[in-house]
Design goal:
Strand order of the largest sheet of chain B: 7-2-10-11
Radius of gyration of chain A: 29 Å
Number of helices of chain A: 18
CATH class of the largest domain in chain A: Mainly Alpha
Order of helices and strands of chain A: HHHHHHHHEHHHEHEEHEHEEHEHEHH
CATH architecture of the largest domain in chain A: Up-down Bundle
Largest sheet of chain A: 4 strands, parallel
CATH topology of one domain in chain B: Immunoglobulin-like
Radius of gyration of chain B: 30 Å
Number of helices of chain B: 2
Number of domains of chain A: 2
Helix content of chain B: 10-25%
Number of strands of chain A: 9
CATH topology of the largest domain in chain A: Cytochrome Bc1 Complex, Chain C
Bound molecules: protoporphyrin IX containing FE, iron/sulfur cluster
Shape of chain B: elongated
Strand order of the largest sheet of chain A: 7-6-8-9
Distance between the termini of chain B: 71 Å
Shape of chain A: elongated
Strand content of chain A: 5-15%
Strand content of chain B: 35-45%
Structural class of chain B: alpha+beta
Oligomer: heterodimer
Structural class of chain A: alpha/beta
Chain lengths: 520, 172
């Protein structure tokens, strides 16, 4: 299964890179499917408030009142109704793609289990919200859906009187209708609550799409509302069967599926799919590495790791010995072992004169001190006219493949682990240029590795790269796993540029640490 | 690399294309393809009831000795078994068997109503519907019977139900 997933991921990443070219990462719908889900839900909620206000809440009148605002008041009620319908449909589409995407990116196991498992009930809630909406219209489609749902639930031994008996000729009351209203308001509110739970373990969750994306999708729905306004079927009539229905397959596909199989069959399909989703985190998978470790003497309480951690796995606690100071602490059950905190820590700078570089917050499997040693050794071993240091990421294009006499490669667990001062250090200890690569923004396995690195290098985020570092000698080239050839090409162009630049132009003063000068 | 400026015509065209495609996907499956739930020349017969069968055994009088053994507040002369009979049903349509089955009483002590729900698609038109039920385990034969000629319009739903206050089996 894993090879299918990898194949799917390569395809998805190709699509995402393609969209990056036209939307930019921030506006790329594929990279913000969860945020689009929230966006559609807000639109449905806002339009729903108006529709509810103008609705006649009686079983006899509801259809008439909806017909009224669909046709007589098409310019307001009708448009809002269509927006309500199409945003709900859009929600299903982006939700299904969101599940597919998170699956392909392998975000269902390890520390991801929480987001994954809490996502599963939202699928049921989305469907229950949408299907309940169809009942509320109480046209033939609503009746069909209500009867089909009742037939489905009657298979479970939960009702003493079968729910289907409610829909025999002549027994429906306004109380039934109040129940529908209650369901169609209560379930979406429960959905909101479930989504709030869903994003609890994620810091700075991406719940609002960028302005461009929000506007683009809203205008899209609006155009749809004008071009193809939503209309009802005829009024529900309990004495006849609806024959031909224009059903909304996004939500109501379960009914034809049930008549194609059987109520038990549909339970098998729906229950089986749910169990499958819930069981995915149990599949064997790569074990998570050790979690981040704080070294209190090297922590000054600056809060940068706290701010940058993508999973809210760091708490700032009062310093036990220094009153008024804080100390970082890792919350083990939340930590994803990404290393982004180590890249955020000011104590991670390689320019420190200490023999053994120990930083404030570090990853046991790739400590910053060892990274400095490794980098010094590799750069010292470089030969040839142009020497380049490459910092890459294990999850992205495999940087190991570009290593040669003139190219030193440092493979990080996540590019977000790179303290920007390492770039300057590499340039001052013999490299002619530094190339930083990793997953594209939005592909990062740990959400923010790419974004934070980009911002640190451009000076928008602490810790920042010192402005003295010549831009000509730093190249940032993001490349997903399948974009190896792009990475190679970027490296070749960079090497060519550096060659033309000449050895002394735009060059930082070389720097030999005392500890190295001493030992020779 | 393309310029991502929103004023770049290529970017605008690509974005418009994407939103258009997205809208088409939403709109198409929002009403299409039509679902034919029931062919135009067919009708539906629903067999549905929620009905208490007769007790499985006779009620009987307690003997004076039995009564004496009970606590004074429990001394009721007549005892009836709580358990209800299952409802046996047989439906024939135009002389052909359509359904035969049995609905057990609900509840742990089997003292609840028997419920059943079945739907049958049949050609519209004239039919002879014959329904036989047994609601008493002490009787072997069907003790509730109804046979009637009905004319079903296309898409019409006819319900076969049974209720004591309707005098047994009735069609609606
Ligand atoms: C309407 C339904 C849903 C909405 C609106 C929604 C929304 C979101 C949002 C906003 C995020 C945060 C993304 C970020 O900031 O990086 C997220 C993350 C996530 N969602 Fe959903 N979600 C929904 C349903 C689901 C379902 C059904 C699943 C899977 C069964 C799922 C799996 C995940 C996972 C695994 C993550 C975590 C990603 C990570 O760890 O980086 N979601 N979701
Ligand atoms: S390793 Fe990643 S998840 Fe863990 S504390 Fe550091 S930044 Fe947070
Ligand atoms: S970034 Fe480093 S110094 Fe700042 S709070 Fe975190 S561990 Fe402490």
């Amino acid at each position: 299964m894993d090879s299918i997933r990898q194949g799917g991921l390569a395809l998805l990443q190709r699509i995402e890179s393609f969209f990056d070219a036209f939307f930019g990462a921030a506006g790329n719908p594929w990279r913000h499917l969860g945020a689009l889900g929230f966006h559609f839900l807000w639109i449905a909620l806002a339009t729903g408030i108006y529709l509810f206000i103008v609705l006649d809440t009686g079983i006899e009148d509801v259809h008439t009142s909806i017909e009224y605002y669909t046709h007589e008041q098409w310019w307001l009620g009708g448009i809002l109704r269509s927006l309500h319908r199409y945003s709900a449909d859009g929600l299903v589409v982006v939700m299904l793609l969101h599940i597919l995407r998170e699956f392909l990116y392998g975000r269902f196991h390890g520390f991801h289990w929480y987001s994954w498992i809490t996502g599963v009930p939202t699928v049921w809630l989305v469907y229950a919200s949408g299907i309940g909406g169809y009942w509320l219209v109480w046209d033939q489609l609503g009746l069909f859906s209500a009867v089909a749902s009742a037939e489905w639930f009657d298979w479970l031994p939960i009702f003493s009187t079968p729910a289907t008996r409610n829909f025999l000729p002549g027994v429906l009351t306004d109380r039934f209708f109040s129940l529908l209203v209650f369901l169609h308001i209560g379930i979406p509110l429960t959905l909101m609550l479930a989504l709030w739970v869903h994003i609890q373990r994620i810091s700075q969750a991406d719940v609002f799409p960028s302005r461009a994306l929000a506007l683009g999708t809203f205008v899209m729905l609006l155009v749809l509302a004008f071009v193809k306004p939503t209309v009802s079927h005829g009024k529900a009539d309990l004495s006849v069967v609806p024959t031909v229905l224009h059903i909304d397959w996004h939500y109501l596909f379960i009914h034809p599926l049930m008549y194609l199989t059987s109520p038990a069959g549909l339970w098998l399909i729906a229950g089986g799919a749910t169990l499958l989703l819930l069981a995915l985190p149990l599949l064997p998978h790569k074990k998570q590495g050790p979690i981040a470790v704080v070294n209190p003497p090297n922590c000054n309480g600056c809060r940068r790791c706290f701010v940058d951690c993508p999973y809210g796995a760091i708490a700032m606690l009062p310093h036990p010995d220094k009153p008024g100071h804080e100390l970082a602490r890792v919350l083990p059950e939340l930590c994803a072992s990404c290393g982004i905190c180590a890249g955020a820590c000011p104590s991670s700078t390689p320019f420190r004169s200490v023999e053994q570089l120990v930083t404030g917050i570090d990853m046991p499997q790739q400590p910053v001190g060892a990274l400095r040693q490794d980098m010094e050794r590799r750069i010292a071993a470089l030969s040839g006219p142009v020497k380049i240091a490459v910092f890459g990421c294990e999850c992205a294009a495999r940087v190991g493949a570009v290593e040669d006499q003139g190219t030193a490669v440092m493979n990080l667990m996540c590019t977000g682990l790179l303290p920007p001062s390492f770039v300057e250090y590499a340039l001052r200890s013999g490299a002619d240029g530094v190339l930083v690569t990793g997953c594209r923004e939005g592909s990062c396995a740990y959400r923010f590795g790419t974004q934070w690195t980009e911002q640190r290098l451009s000076g928008e985020r602490e810790p920042h790269l010192r402005p003295g570092v010549p831009a000509e000698r730093l190249r940032v080239a993001w490349a997903d796993r399948h974009e190896m050839s792009d990475l190679k090409a970027a490296l070749d162009v960079f090497r060519e540029n550096l060659k033309n630049l000449g050895a002394d132009e735009m060059r930082l003063r070389p720097y030999t640490p005392r500890r190295i000068a001493k030992h020779g | 690399m393309v310029s991502k400026s929103p004023t770049n015509p290529l970017v605008m065209a690509a974005q418009a294309l994407f939103y258009g495609l997205f809208a088409v996907i939403i709109a198409i499956f929002s009403t299409w393809p039509d679902y034919v739930h029931l062919d135009g020349d067919r009708s539906l017969i629903k067999l549905s009831f929620s009905y208490h069968g007769e007790p499985v055994g006779e009620c009987r009088e307690r003997s004076p000795e039995e009564l004496a053994k009970l606590a004074p507040n429990m001394r009721v002369a007549k005892v009836c078994p709580r358990e209800r009979s299952p409802i046996r049903v047989k439906v024939d349509l135009d002389g052909q068997p359509l359904f035969e089955g049995s609905a057990p009483p609900a509840g742990l002590s089997k003292d609840g109503a028997s419920t059943l729900y079945r739907r049958f698609e049949v050609p519209a038109g004239e039919h002879l519907v014959s329904v036989k039920m047994n609601d008493n385990a002490r009787i072997a034969d069907f003790n509730l019977v109804r046979e009637e000629k009905v004319t079903l319009k296309p898409a019409q739903i006819m319900v076969i139900d049974v209720r004591k206050d309707h005098g047994g089996i009735f069609f609606e």
